[in-house]
Amino acid sequence: MLNRILAKLDNTKMITFFYFFLLLYTISALVWWGILLYEQNKQIMELQYQNLLLKQDNKMPHATYLYEIERVNKEKKLRNLQYIGEGGTFLLIILLSAGFVYHAMRRRMHFARQQQNFMAAVTHELKSPIAIIRLNLETLQKRKLEDEKKNRFYENTMGELNRLNQLCNNMLLASQFDSHQYHLVKEETDLSAMLQQIALEYTARMQHHTIQYSIPEDITVYADIFMLQIAINNLLENAVKYAPKGSTISIRLIPDGNIARLQIADEGEGIPPDERKRIFSRFYRIGNENTRKSKGTGLGLFLTKKIITQHGGRITVFGNKPKGSIFEIALQRFPA
How far apart are CA 254 and CA 245, in angstroms? Predict the structure, then answer.
């Protein structure tokens, strides 16, 4: 893995070196072209001066001589201005083009690294639950266990299956969003009942976290049930992933006039203010990919924002006190 990373760095440095080498060569050629034209203009003027001196020796009127001298000087200035204008225009075009190409190249390379990190993360996210499920099933098959231990293995296996299902849903939705194939099927949805069910499921699954929830009854929204569940699950999975074991994850549904505000709060390290807009970008994950402890694909928050935006809602993130993050989804209540 280290060799691959070093090889990628070497390739990046080589491409950057050749890019700047060609850019400097082009600018140097332009400057050299300007110097040659300036020297050529100087030689032309000297020849014209000599020609005028010969004419003056042949008894050219003095007034005509002065007029010709002034004309030659004006032509020299005009040619110099022409060379400066053309050279400056070409230099500006070269620099703008170079900046555009460099920016596009950097974005492309950054996106390629994100895709590579995504593939590595997906591989890990698939292999880990599959290995756990296989181990649990082999244990249940080969050993006689007490009912309590069996139930624990079943719950663990179901949790990993749900994790696999959510990963597959995220990848499928990302593909469908790209191709504009998915269309929301909205209907009147009991958001209170949905959240209570999700909260109970996470309370049973997440033994290492405390799930607290405050959910008033009979708050409905106009939404695609399947998509809204994915968005909420993504936020909860994100909170579980980054919050330390033993900490509390809170789910709050707050009626605010004709708006329903859903807040999911954790007690993790929190998100720096300058990162709060970038975390909703595709494949984006905070920190260095090589030193990051938590795994993930970088699709969860991207899809969540897509889903909420398509519902005409808004998602924001702000700091929790004393530490952590709060993700808030604001949706219009039903009826509008």
Answer: 27
Query: Whole-model pTM?
Result: 0.57
Tell me how far CA of residue 256 lies from CA of 213, 259, 266, 333, in angstroms. 17, 5, 22, 9
pLDDT attached to residue 5: 44
Q: How far is CA 167 from its chain centroid?
A: 19
pLDDT tens across 69-117, in order? 788 788 878 887 888 888 888 888 888 888 888 888 777 776 676 666 6
CA 149 to chain CA centroid, nearest Å: 43
CA 62 to chain centre: 75
Residues near 243 by Cβ (< 8 Å), separated by ≥ 6? 209, 249, 266, 267, 268, 324
Extended beta strands in 94-239, E state: 187-190, 210-214, 220-223
**Ranges of residues in the chain whose predicted pLDDT is under 50:** 1-3, 5-6, 9, 288-292
Number of residues in the chain = 336
254-299 confidence digits (pLDDT tens): 998 899 999 999 988 888 887 887 888 776 666 544 434 555 566 7
CATH class of the region 187-332: alpha beta
CA 58 and chain centroid, separation: 78
Nearby residues of 270 by Cβ (< 8 Å), 6 or more positions away: 319, 320, 323, 324, 325
Single out the residue of 276, 282, 281 nearest to residue 171, CA to CA.
282
